[in-house]
Specification:
The complex is a heterodimer of chains A (184) and B (333).
Chain A: E1 13-20, E2 23-30, H1 35-42, E3 61-64, E4 67-70, E5 83-85, H2 100-107, H3 117-132, H4 142-146, H5 155-161, H6 172-183
Parallel strand pairs in A: 1-5
Antiparallel strand pairs in A: 1-2, 3-4, 3-5
Helix pairs in contact in A: 2-6
Chain B: E1 5-8, H1 12-21, E2 25-28, H2 34-40, E3 47-50, E4 60-62, E5 68-71, H3 76-81, H4 83-88, H5 90-97, H6 102-107, H7 110-114, H8 131-134, H9 168-176, E6 179-184, E7 187-192, E8 215-221, E9 229-236, E10 247-256, E11 259-268, E12 275-276, H10 278-284, H11 291-302, H12 313-331
Parallel strand pairs in B: 1-3, 2-3
Antiparallel strand pairs in B: 4-5, 5-8, 6-7, 6-8, 9-10, 10-11, 11-12
Classes of the chains: A alpha+beta (184), B alpha+beta (333).
């Protein structure tokens, strides 16, 4: 069983600054706090979901300094000073304007229960930026990998690049064309 | 999770000194393995020393002899996407891209990837006995040997441990004959891969040859010998993506006309360390790659395998990976 000595050790607190969806926050937190718990419990941004808390489902995907990451495995203290974008901020401060990915997910009926959807959207946004930057994937043909050439965003590429986001409702068949649509 | 102090080091010397001064401290890279294990109670550090932003550790640089030096804090994503890595060492880019997910690769560091712990279900579960996690107190207590070992080792295991190393990066580096640079309290040293990861033997609690307090600072790749280097990484797993290997392979092949001038074959998913198939390599050198010679090479290597009750299926996968990858590379334009 886990060692009971942890009952005798008090929490360690640390200060940090984060910019979340354009808003600056200064916080004092327990060092054990993940970015996911900080967003949900302290900042009440409950759009990011806790599906597994072990980096295996992608429901907690956010953007840290523009790159997609699992918020559940990111210790908040390790990201002091970072710029965070959550699903709540994906569309910018545009009020009623949806992000193109959000519009495409609605258009293509790319969700059922909606629980994985915030993670899918943030992950897709990060993924499309990676693709624009010319990043290869595990299914990119070697010729394009070695030649640093342009990479076509095929269905196989989208599926591979989004493999970190699970959907128990099985909405993948509509998620993929939604992302393809938003990428053009 | 046990409460811990968090500190950020400025440079490697400071990181090493900070760790030496703290009992029960660990280095923190991207946290994608360590935080997971802390949440499971498998790892219980009292202090974390963040080395993900160490000065000079976040870059990939050319070396004087035309190779590359990769800082240990470079993210997996940045490593795989780097144009120089893609052009000269595509097997390395490919191997990294076959691991984890996009989100994890963005956070995970090169150093952390090499030091990730086994996925053996007994190691990961603190309610189960495990010689690696607890230190070997009673011989023969490895519960996986008689239990669930379907995805564990067929080579190089011991009575005390049948765990496998899960890193794809390590397999590619083993085929590229990379060197790991390490800094400790008593100075720096260079460790070759293969050679960083141990076989379990009598001390399964030690995954690598690193001494306590040693920090990986960089991975160095030698200059590729020329445009004739053919490279491939293949990974066989139960899902098409985002799963650990059942068996994986990295091959680097150099031909002189039709004959094999040099070949390096590394297998993943089969042992406590990336497994260099040196017997297969010796059998292949100096002659063309044919179906017969590739099959013979696989046979000669896998003769020494010791499959457990439920993981013998890995032999056929390993055999097929060796023969098909060799033939594919030999036949490629």
């Amino acid at each position: 069983m886990p060692d009971d000595r942890t009952q005798l050790e008090p929490p360690v607190l640390a200060d940090l600054r984060l910019r979340v969806n354009g808003v600056e926050h200064e916080l004092t937190i327990d060092t054990r706090t993940s970015l996911l718990d900080l967003l949900r419990e302290r900042l009440h941004l409950t759009g990011s979901k806790k599906g597994c808390d072990h980096g295996q489902c992608g429901a907690c995907t956010i953007l840290i300094d523009g790159r997609r990451a699992n918020a559940c495995l990111a210790l908040a203290v390790a990201h002091d000073g970072a710029e965070i974008t959550t699903i709540e901020g994906l569309a910018g401060d545009g009020g009623d304007e949806l992000h193109p990915l959000q519009a495409a997910f609605i258009e293509h009926d790319a969700f059922q229960c909606g629980y994985c959807t915030p993670g899918q959207l943030c992950s897709a946004a990060g993924m499309l930026a990676e693709h624009r930057d010319g990043w290869p994937s595990a299914v990119t043909p070697y010729a394009a990998v070695t030649a640093n050439g342009p990479i076509e965003l095929t269905e196989a590429e989208i599926r591979e690049r989004m493999s970190g986001n699970l959907c128990r409702c099985g909405a993948y068949a509509n998620i993929v064309p939604a992302i393809a649509d938003a990428s053009s | 999770m046990r409460p811990f102090r968090y500190e950020r080091a400025g440079d490697a010397g400071q990181a090493v000194a900070l760790l030496a001064a703290e009992p029960e401290a660990k280095f923190l890279g991207g946290g994608t393995n360590l935080v997971d294990l802390m949440r499971l109670g498998v790892e219980t550090p009292r202090t974390l020393i963040d080395v993900s932003r160490l000065q000079d550790h976040g870059r990939i640089e050319e070396t004087a002899d035309g190779g590359l030096r990769i800082g240990a804090a470079v993210s997996n994503s940045d490593l795989a996407a780097d144009p120089r890595v893609r052009a000269r060492y595509p097997v390395l880019s490919s191997a990294v891209l076959h691991g984890a997910s996009g989100q994890l690769r963005n956070l995970a560091t090169v150093g952390g990837n090499l030091l990730q712990r086994t996925r053996c279900p007994y190691f990961q579960d603190v309610t189960k006995p495990c010689n690696k996690r607890e230190g070997a107190r009673d011989r023969g207590r490895c519960p996986a040997r008689e239990g669930d070992h379907r995805n564990l080792a067929i080579l190089g295991h011991s009575e005390l441990c049948v765990a496998t190393n899960p890193s794809d990066l390590a397999v590619a580096l083993a085929a590229l004959e990379a060197t790991v640079h390490v800094q400790g309290a008593s100075g720096s040293r260079a460790i070759p891969i293969p050679g960083l990861h141990r076989l379990p033997g009598d001390a399964p609690d030690r995954d690598t040859v690193l001494e306590p307090g040693e920090l990986i600072t960089a991975v160095e790749l030698a200059r590729r010998r020329g445009p004739g280097s053919r490279q491939r990484y293949r990974k066989v797993r139960e899902r098409r993506s985002f799963a650990f290997a059942l068996v994986s392979i990295a091959v680097v092949l150099e031909l002189d006309g039709d004959a094999v001038a040099d070949v390096r074959i590394a297998l993943g998913g089969v042992a406590h360390a990336p497994w260099r198939a040196t017997r297969a390599e010796a059998a292949l050198r100096g002659a063309p790659v044919t179906e017969a010679s590739a099959a013979r090479a696989a046979e000669v290597e896998l003769e020494q395998a010791q499959p457990l009750r439920d993981n013998g299926y890995k032999l056929e996968i390993a055999r097929n990976l060796i023969t098909r990858t060799l033939l594919e590379l030999a036949e490629a334009g």
